[in-house]
Amino acid sequence: MPSSSSRLARRTAALVAGLLLSAGALAQTYPAKPVTLMVPYPAGGVSDVIARTVNNTLGKQLGQPVIVENLGGASGSIAAQKVLSQPSDGHMIFQGSPNELILAPLAISAIKFKSEDFRLVNMIATAQIGFLTRGDLPVNSIDEFVEYARKQAQQGRPITYASVGPGSFYHLLGEHLSKVTGIPMVHVPYKGGAPAEQDLISGQVDIFLSPFATKHVDLRKAGRIKVLALLNSARLDTAKDIPAITESKALKDFTFNIWTGYFVKRDTPEAVVATLHKAIAGTLTEPTVRANLEAASQTPAPTLSVAEAAKAYTDGTAQFRAIAKSINLQAQ
After folding, report:
1. Where in the chain is the domain with CATH 3.40.190.150?
2. Signal sequence: where (predicted)?
3. Which of 26, 203, 229, 298 has a CA positioned 20 to 30 A from the CA of residue 34?
C-alpha cells in the first residue's frame, strides 16, 4: 500500500499539472470575451482621450472588442482596486501611471494594495506637462508667476493649485513647486483632470500642472487659460510659441513628464501577458494611433520587451517613492 506521503506527492503533482494545463488553456483562448480597459478618471480628460485613441485598434489586435470603462476617485485607486478584484485572466486591464499605482498608496492610508500587486505589460505614451493658469491671472511668464505667488502669500492670499487627488503626481508637483520656491500654496484636489480643468477655466483655482493637450492650445487662444510653459528642457515642435520651463530663471530645473502604461494583476499568466504585450506593440505601430496620440501631445512609447517593461516599472517605483519622501508626503 502506498504511504501517505507518496499519495500526497501524487496528489500535489496532479494538482500542479492541472493548474499548468488550465493556465495553458487560458492562454490559448485569451481573450475569450470582450476586454475591459479601466480608466481611473472621468470621461473627458487626457487619460480618457488616450484610451479612446487606442481601444478600437487594440481590440482588432486582440480579436475581441476593448471596452473603455471610466471610474474616477481617490487618485485612481478605486479603479485600481476594482481591477484587483477581478480574475487574473487579462480580461480587465488597467490604464495607469505612477500617479495611481505608486503615489496613491503612499498618500492615502485607506489604500491597501501595493505597487507590486500590478505588472506593467507595456508603456503607451509619455505626456508633456503644462503649467496652466486661469485666464485672468495677472502674469504672463513663469518668473512673473513666482513673484505674484510670493506677494499673494505675503498678503495672506496664497495661490491655489489643482490636482487629480491627494498623492497624485500633480499634487506632488504642486508641493514640490511650493518647496523649491519657498512659497506657501493651497492644494485643491479633484477626482480627475476634466473637473480640475473646468474649475481652472471658470477661475475657481489658480493653476493646474497638467498633461498638455491640443485643446489647451485652443483654450489659450480663446483667453480662457494661460500656458506659461511646458515642463520640458526644450520647446515642443508642435507648440513652438510656448516656452520650455528651462527658459525661466526661477524654475529652470523644474523639468518633469509622466508616462502611461497598460497593467494587469501581478499573477496573470505569462502567456496572457505575452499576447497582450504583442497586441499593444502592434497597436502602437498603427499610423493613425500614433498621429492621434501626438495630436493629444502624447509621445508614443517605444516598444519594450516584457522584461524591459518590468524594469521600467521597478525603476519608476523607486524614482517616485524618492520624490514623495523628499517632500515628506504623509498618508492621510
Report:
1. 32-126+258-326
2. 1-27
3. 298
